[in-house]
Write a structure and sequence with these properties.
Strand content of chain B: 15-25%
Structural class of chain B: alpha/beta
Number of domains of chain A: 3
CATH architecture of the largest domain in chain A: 3-Layer(aba) Sandwich
Number of strands of chain B: 12
Oligomer: heterodimer
Largest sheet of chain A: 7 strands, mixed
CATH architecture of chain B: 3-Layer(aba) Sandwich
Largest sheet of chain B: 4 strands, parallel
Number of helices of chain B: 8
Shape of chain B: globular
Radius of gyration of chain B: 17 Å
Strand content of chain A: 15-25%
Bound molecules: iron/sulfur cluster
Shape of chain A: globular
Structural class of chain A: alpha/beta
């Protein structure tokens, strides 16, 4: 406490600072944050609009400020400093200081506006629109957060606090300039397990398995609404704007009253809405008008604009239709947005959907298309390199590749059985020592010698399964537990940094292999993964391990046989540039004055 | 007339299935699509070029493909568009600069009338969506045929991407009021799951539009050549004997259709 006071005293003396780009931790919260009070003069304020009481490791509680953005707003910093000056406060222990916070809140604490982006169909372009708006608003200096009440996705990420949320909200948070996305941005995550059952994650933690009937019958009317409301409120209290993303179409009249992903969420967050229609498949005007008119009256009033998205060719050919749609629908068309040629990871794997192969580089990488493949966005960074990545289901194709990747899966045991039945297991084993082979998460578990599932937690019944035997490792599922955490690691072979995250059930229990990574987290250090360089075998639990150039370059160097220069591009930087380009496309095609008007910002 | 609520809604296939259905009952049937925007064409025995979809539909009828089944074929290539009339190259136009609509419409009516005089039934397929309000005055393949020849029409809507009720309702709303009585029913295509989940939505749709729901087709991983063909094909027919494989698939699909759709109602609509 004393040292904090000392720091605060220094800050008070220094005066206004603005964003401190020179600080190695900058930005610790969001792009453009004001760093005047890195240490807060009000600590601990005990105001739950701003911070929270959390359990401390030593027992008791401690005041946690990680979600407080208020103190990093420029107008707030300037006001506090001016109050110090006006009242002649120079000592951080001055009893008048706590009185300044309520006044600052009265002046500057506002509940943010929520705007919901609805899609007329799935794949309408909702998530990119949200990402684009987040970036546009963030560039204008607003504090903005993405939000998707309920997301069904197999691609998730782990937040800094160890919660699991959909990958796409992490991307949108990045577009918004947010350093640490958290579970409030995607409070309900459905991870499909089979055709009808999903694992429901609530606020980043497993909640239970539900089929469609029970989900809509029990979960939604039960805890669902409250979860959506409290998380939307949390974000609204901290951000100027919350840009929400709907799910599928809001006009599914057969489940309208049970929806918490679209209009249900919009009501709970009191959001205005914009409808995005993908014109690519035709029928766009019908989709737009039909969606609008099938909404209930109280919901239709929220709909403030329409975006015609993904126009290929000359956008002006849509203009007549857009004007007529406005007349009939009584809602303005905010823009006709051309197809944006950007490279971003997308939920339905825009990179892969409907296509088996991506890229046209020299290094041919086979990604085994497991029937229950998960987190396949792990592979996206390979597109930055001189590679052609192909999803392979036919084992006869395997010998033609320069590298093999066995990706993650929702069910290791069942996909291992598929590997064996299809002949893929033998095809991969036959390549040992000839080309590099990488297993990620479930794929890594498969590469081991034995997979023990004595309680039938992963497979449908108890059993011990023989792995591919590429590594001398054993995996066991012995309790229904899940490891979810973010790791920062170094690649042992080169000493270069790698970031990743783990999401898996089943733990490695025996390991006679050299480790691939050394993980060095804030409070723990351990070896991770396995490697046999001489046989070109690599395995790891770390999703995202290809994002930074270090491991990607290392892995592909085994494949490239001297051919082709393997790049060093940083995936995050590439994504960031693409987000800017995406935002440019939207900004130049949308009626920005009308959009800002909907958001309540007058020019 | 099978109209699609979007490209790739499944109208080519539904029309082919219905052709097969009628032919199997001994009705002399011909397929017809006034105007086709397609890259894949078929050369008829008269040496004319028509869209591949109509060739397959003709075989489904047990008929010989002929140029009247697809009197206007537009083949985009590069920045140009080749206009094929009655099977023969007629002109090249740059994309966006449309050939004479009235002339093409006249061709289409002539071909349709000729087919109707020679066959007991003509199963028509629309092109794209009939509700493209930016193209209405240039669209001959959809409502213009329906209106001027009094052809009863059925909407085929793809549920795979969601928004199916919206697009059925929106299409109906955007069709001029005086023509709506010709829209007699709708088919929900490519559904996965338990169709009873849709019941309340379907009932509401029937109430709102007066169109009858003719059924819900389950998702079938069978795709036929061609349907507004500028979209990439999803799913492909494998094997060398394309035509044989197509017929096998079609018979399978007809079985499914007979289980899933109200074929009697469809027959009544088609009968006038
Ligand atoms: S929550 Fe915010 S205002 Fe309160 S003590 Fe923490 S940083 Fe200061």
């Amino acid at each position: 406490m004393r040292s904090i006071k000392k720091k605060v005293a220094e800050e008070m003396k220094r005066g206004h600072r603005g964003p401190d780009a020179g600080c190695p931790y900058h930005p610790s919260h969001f792009k453009g944050q004001d760093c005047t009070f890195c240490y807060c003069p009000f600590y601990p304020c005990n105001d739950t609009d701003l911070g929270a009481d959390i359990g401390s490791k030593r027992g008791g509680t401690v005041w946690d400020c990680t979600d407080c953005l208020f103190i990093h707003r420029t107008n707030v910093c300037r006001f506090i400093l001016s109050e110090f000056e006006r009242q002649g406060i120079t000592d951080p222990g001055d009893p008048r200081i706590p009185g300044i916070l309520p006044e600052a809140k009265r002046r500057f604490f506002r509940t943010g506006r929520a705007l919901m982006i609805l899609g007329a169909t799935s794949d309408a372009g909702k998530s990119v629109t949200v990402a684009a708006l987040c970036r546009i608003l963030s560039r204008k200096g607003h504090l903005v957060a993405p939000f998707k009440a309920q997301n069904m996705s197999l691609n998730s990420r782990v937040t800094r606090k160890g919660h699991e949320i959909a990958m796409i909200q992490v991307l949108q948070a990045m577009a918004a300039g947010i350093k640490n996305p958290d579970y409030h941005m995607n409070p309900i995550l459905l991870k499909p397990k089979g055709d009808t059952v999903s694992q429901v994650m609530v606020e980043g933690r497993p909640f239970g398995d539900y089929d469609v009937g029970r989900y809509y019958g029990e979960f939604v009317p039960g805890p669902g609404r409250e979860i959506v409301k409290r998380n939307a409120d949390f974000l609204k209290a901290r951000y100027d704007f919350v840009i929400m993303e709907g799910a599928g179409s809001p006009a599914e009249i057969n489940i309208y009253d049970r929806d918490i992903a679209n209009m249900g969420a919009a009501r709970l967050a009191d959001a205005d809405c914009i409808l995005v229609v993908n014109v690519e498949w035709g029928g766009a005007f019908a989709y737009a008008l039909g969606t609008l008119e099938l909404l209930e009256d109280q919901d239709r009033r929220r709909l403030k604009g329409i975006i015609l998205n993904n126009v290929r060719g000359d956008p002006s050919r849509m203009e007549d239709g857009a004007r007529r749609l406005e007349e009939i629908a009584g809602v303005p068309v905010l823009g006709i947005v051309p197809h944006a040629d950007v490279r971003l990871p997308t939920e339905d794997s825009g990179s892969f959907r409907g296509r088996d192969s991506v890229g046209s580089g020299r290094i041919k990488v086979a990604a085994i298309k497991l029937p229950r493949i998960a987190n396949f966005t792990d592979l996206d960074p390979l597109f930055l390199e001189d590679t052609t990545v192909k999803f392979v289901t036919d084992p006869r194709e395997i010998p033609g590749f320069d590298a093999i990747i066995i990706p993650g899966t929702k069910n290791t045991v069942e996909d291992l059985a598929w590997m064996k039945e299809s002949g893929m297991a033998d095809a991969v084993k036959a390549m040992k020592g000839k080309v590099p082979i990488l297993g990620i998460c479930g794929g890594y578990q498969m590469m081991g010698r034995t997979l023990r599932d004595p309680k039938g937690l992963e497979g449908s019944r108890p059993g011990t399964h023989e792995g591919l035997g590429l590594f001398d490792t054993e995996t066991e599922w012995d309790e229904y537990s899940k490891r979810v955490r973010q790791d920062s690691a170094v690649l042992i072979s080169t000493g270069e940094p790698v970031d990743g995250y783990e999401i898996h059930m089943g733990m490695k229990v025996r390991d006679g292999e050299a480790p691939l990574f050394r993980v060095d987290n804030f409070n723990e250090s351990f070896d991770e993964g396995s490697v046999r360089e001489d046989e070109m075998l690599f395995g790891s639990y770390l999703h995202g391990l290809l994002d930074r150039p270090a491991f990607r370059r290392y892995f592909l160097s085994f494949a490239s046989s001297g051919e082709g220069e393997v790049g060093t591009e940083d995936y995050d930087r590439d994504v960031d540039e693409n987000l800017d380009r995406l935002a440019d496309v939207f900004e130049s095609s949308l009626d920005m004055d009308a959009l800002m008007g909907i958001l309540g910002v007058r020019p | 007339m099978f109209l699609g609520t979007s490209s790739g809604a499944g109208k080519t296939t539904m029309a082919a299935v219905y052709c097969r259905h009628l032919a199997s009952k001994g009705v002399r049937t011909a397929p017809f699509k006034a105007s086709n925007l397609s890259l894949n064409s078929y050369a008829t025995s008269e040496g004319g070029e028509i869209g591949m979809g109509q060739a397959f539909q003709a075989w489904a009828c047990g008929a010989e493909p002929s140029v009247e089944m697809n009197p206007v074929l537009l083949k985009p290539s590069g920045g140009r568009m080749q206009v094929i009339l009655r099977g023969r190259p007629f002109a090249e136009a740059s994309v966006g600069q449309d050939p004479d609509t009235e002339m093409m419409a006249a061709e289409a009516f002539r071909a349709f009338d000729s087919l109707s005089s020679r066959y007991d039934a003509v199963v028509c397929e629309g092109s794209g969506s009939p509700a493209e309000i930016n193209l209405l005055d240039r669209d001959i393949a959809n409502m213009r045929m329906v209106r001027e020849r009094g052809i009863p029409a059925v909407l085929v809507a793809d549920i795979e991407r969601g928004g199916v009720f919206a697009v059925i309702y929106g299409t109906w709303r955007l069709i001029p009021e005086e023509d709506r009585h010709l829209l007699r029913g709708f088919i929900i295509n490519r559904f996965r799951g338990d169709p009873s989940l849709l019941r309340s939505g379907i009932e509401r749709m029937e109430e709102l539009t007066g169109m009858k729901c003719l059924g819900v087709m389950p998702y079938a991983d069978l795709r036929f050549p061609e349907e507004d063909s500028l979209s990439e094909g999803r799913g492909r027919l494998e094997g060398g004997d394309l035509r044989g494989a197509f017929m096998d698939n079609l018979d399978e699909l007809l079985e499914i259709a007979r289980e899933s759709l109200d074929m009697r109602a469809l027959d009544r609509i088609a009968g006038g």
